[in-house]
Design brief:
alpha+beta, Immunoglobulin-like, two-stranded antiparallel ribbon, seven-stranded antiparallel sheet, single chain, 3 helices, 209 residues, 9 strands, globular
């Protein structure tokens, strides 16, 4: 009986061995391809053609073209980009004037009129009784006489709109005769009346609708 059981065990082991040999090993699964990376979004464009609502060319007292200013209107104010050459090195006052007329450079650009001030308040960004709508920060010209600046002037609008008037009052910069941007020979101290001691007008840009 013992011999029979032993022979049966050998037979079972042999059958199991043959069965295992008859099976093929499963092929390894193919690796999953990694997802392709998403294409990077194009960089936002910030060219003048996309965002400029108004612009003008600076001229010198002799009538030479010396630069450009561009404006973008927003509900809370106006963004300005300035690029001008031919200035004396240092700080220069820059203001918004009443009329888009730079035709009399030899006479000091007087045709551009006085400061835009429909609210009839005093001059000066640092003046507790100001500022009026013409007032913006000084710009700085390097040793080569070139100045580049981007300035946001809060509290004004370029063109009329109900939304802008509700925030900034009923006096947009642009009207029937436009306005001018004047650069002065000296910096504005933002306090002294009527123009902060900024001196003579040395460049003018006419801004028309």
């Amino acid at each position: 009986m013992r011999n029979f059981a032993f022979r049966m065990s050998l037979a079972v082991l042999a059958a199991a061995s043959l069965s295992a040999c008859g099976k093929k090993e499963a092929a390894p699964a193919a690796p999953t391809a990694a997802p392709a990376p998403e294409a990077a979004a194009p960089a936002p464009s910030f060219s003048a053609a996309d965002w400029t609502d108004a612009s003008g060319d600076f001229v010198s007292p002799t009538g030479d073209a010396i630069g450009k200013i561009e404006f973008k209107d927003g509900l809370g104010g106006v963004l300005m980009r300035i690029n001008v050459s031919g200035l004396t090195p240092g700080w220069h006052g820059i203001h918004l004037h009443m009329v888009a007329d730079c035709s009399d450079g030899a006479e000091g650009f007087k045709a551009s009129g006085g400061h835009l001030n429909p609210d009839n308040v005093e001059h000066g960004l640092l003046n507790p009784n100001g500022a009026h709508r013409a007032d913006i920060p000084n710009i700085f010209a390097g040793a080569d006489g070139n100045a580049e600046a981007e300035i946001f002037r809060a509290g004004v609008n370029l063109k009329p709109s109900e939304e802008g008037a509700a925030i900034n009052g009923p006096y947009p910069l642009m009207d029937d005769d436009g306005f001018a941007v004047i650069i002065h020979e000296s910096p504005d101290d933002h306090l002294t009346q009527p123009i902060g001691g900024a001196g003579a007008r040395v460049a003018c840009a006419a801004i028309k609708g």
